[in-house]
Design a protein that fits this description.
The protein is an all-alpha fold and 194 residues long. The protein is built from nine helices and no strands. The longest helix is centred in the first third of the chain and has 24 residues. The radius of gyration is 23 Å and the shape is elongated. The protein starts with a helix and ends in an 8-residue tail after the last helix.
């Protein structure tokens, strides 16, 4: 097994002239991947920090409306939008959802009004019940709680308010965005004192 891995890593069987090109290409790929990983603050998506949700600037209205809601005191974005039954399902869901968001943002395909996918609706429903099990399982709960309906059917505006466009909260107080151009690069081409 180890011998096969060594043969692959040293590119045995590949002509020597192509080995240099292959190693250079691999180096460029790894370097660019690391740079994109750093720029996108990808490691922040492994946390439960709500500011990670606004790294790509699309979720600013959702962040701002959540921040000013009653849920902000007791929840983070992941409390509602990510499964909690197992770590494997949680991170698999975050990876799939993050890849989808990254694709949409990178290719400028994000809709003006962000809406949860069918799978996200299921997760949100699970989490409403997980947090509010005392209401759902209480015999004294008002008759209006029909168990054939999703919580969002009636409580759609909790905690984000009405679905709005990306420009609906232009002056929302959110954490400042860090520049994507490295300082050392931004300073190039400028003369001292400018």
């Amino acid at each position: 097994m180890a011998g096969a891995l060594i043969r692959v890593l040293t590119l045995q069987g590949v002509p020597p002239r192509l080995r240099v090109a292959a190693f250079c290409s691999a180096g460029v790929f790894v370097g660019l991947s690391g740079y994109v990983f750093h720029l996108s603050e990808a490691a922040s998506y492994l946390s439960d920090d709500p500011t990670a949700c606004i790294n790509c600037h699309i979720m600013t209205p959702q962040y701002a409306t959540w921040r000013h809601s009653s849920h902000a005191r007791v929840t983070t974005c992941n409390d509602c939008h990510v499964p909690h039954d197992s770590a494997a399902r949680k991170y698999w869901f975050k990876m799939k959802d993050g890849a989808r968001h990254s694709f949409l943002f990178t290719f400028r395909m994000e809709p003006q009004v962000i809406r949860a996918t069918r799978e996200s609706h299921e997760v949100i429903q699970e989490n409403c019940i997980r947090c509010h099990v005392d209401l759902v399982g209480n015999a004294r709960t008002p008759i209006g709680h029909d168990f054939d309906r999703a919580c969002m059917d009636c409580h759609r505006e909790v905690p984000h308010g009405r679905p709005s466009s990306l420009s609906s909260t232009p002056n929302a107080a959110v954490p400042p965005v860090t520049p994507v151009v490295p300082r050392w690069f931004a300073g190039e081409g400028q003369k001292e004192g400018q």
